[in-house]
Amino acid sequence: MFHQASHDGRRLVEGLLCQNGESLDWIDDLRQLQAKYLEKSPQRAQRDCSAGCPACCMTAQVDATPIEAIAVSEYLRNYLDTDDLFNVKNRLTRVTKLRIAQINAQAPQRPLACGLLGLDGKCSIYPVRPIICSGVFSLNQNECAKAEREAQAGDFSQSIPLDQEAIQATGGISGTLQRVLVEHGLDGNLYELSSAVLAALQVPDCLEHYLNKEDIFQNAICTDPHSPPRKRIVPKPKFLNRRASRPA
Asked: Higher model confidence: residue 202 or residue 111?
């Protein structure tokens, strides 16, 4: 499933780059492709997730590609009024500062609720949430609750049974999205969601600037710096390109 999802994902992302459409269109198309694979999982009937359960949002760090963060920022701009958007920015800022403090060992390692989790315990960006969020399904909600309790106490060892076929398909699509972006000279690194959305909200017409290869996410928390502009690619020494001279 991983390889087929990767293949279909490549064809889709290449087409989206050619179309030069809106970021929300990207997410719609990626989600439709993902949904086809999620329906095929043999563990689909065993999924124990339910609407309004925020366990994952309370314990897991979500990593997203620049395209996904930009789509979330556009959704927030389009659908929130000024006051609500101001409050979301404040939450994102608070979560980002706490995450940085944890990375620098200046704060205890405790789970942080997603900055985009609403006060009602529901995802405030559900229609445009990153594909990793829409591709992870627990097979035991009681284990989710237990993992959340343990994490709050500082124990992150609790494992949760998950729909592995869904994860494979989602990983294939997400990985291909990153690779194709990098192949086109774009930022395809992964960023912590709250910090990436906060960065995107600072830039009007963010997608246009991103596609022009501007470094939009230099102040976001990069969780996987596998390519430029986060990772500097060191060229091979010139002598390695020379052909060894051989005696006649």
From this structure: 202
